[in-house]
Amino acid sequence: MEDLRLSAKKLNVNVLRENEMYKAIAGKFRGKGKTLFTKFKALHKGYYRGSNPQNAVFRKGADGSAIDFYGNDFPKNTPVMVWQPTTGTTLYGRISTSNSHMMLASGSHNLESGKHIHPLERVGLNQSDICYFAEVSMLPAEFDSLSWIDIVGSPENIAATFPDGVVGQWIPETPDGTSKSYSFNKKLIAPYHRCLTGDFGQTWTSESFTIEYIPNSIRKPHNTEDVALYCYAANASVSEPEANSKIRGNVGGYMHQRTLVHEKVIS
Fold first, then answer.
1. What is the pTM of this model?
2. Can you tell me the distance from the alpha carbon of 89 to that of 210, in angstroms, rounded to the nearest whole number?
3. What is the block-wise mean pLDDT of the chain (267 residues), using blocks of 10 residues?
4. Alpha carbon distance 80, 127 (integer Å)
């Protein structure tokens, strides 16, 4: 724990500024981050079928009817993530105010803002292959050092193991019994342990794990029925991506006026 109280004595502003700049350059100065909560539901797959500047529409099948998000526990403004296995595209956003539609963009920060990229083909999504989606919300507490949890498993098995959801972020990769590389969602500082179940949470095993630090991943064979929780320490991001607000009105020239003020000293 760091004591953030300042001394009541007068402090040198330049020294304080230099100390903070040193922390930023050395990577010791961190922002604050939030942990995620993931919930796969009975409705967790569909097909992207088109986009407009406001949102994108999803359907049940490649040529099927529009998905009823509202009637399947996805009310408007529900924060969601979408993953398309064939393209490896992962997007985040919200259920739109129009049923069957989502507002999506890259980066988990979009869970709170709900921006939309049009068309979604620009970020890799196509209209022919299946997509998986889940409700992913940010928990309110903020930390500069996070105890992070990444989830490995298929959407169906995660939904059956955690019907009410689980703290953590899904690694969008489906186990198939072969040795695969699973990339962590955060830069891992220190590994804690792995919790594993192969029977939908009836029994669990806990063990340590080693990682490949340079690619920030782990190579592990997981059976198709496995659901694993990888727990580790991670730092919060220093900043988050943000887009400037739209300009209201026109951008024109500007005028700068310089006024010299002479001070008269009276002795």
1. 0.77
2. 27
3. 68 81 70 87 94 93 86 96 95 95 92 90 91 94 81 96 96 93 92 95 94 92 96 77 47 49 43
4. 19
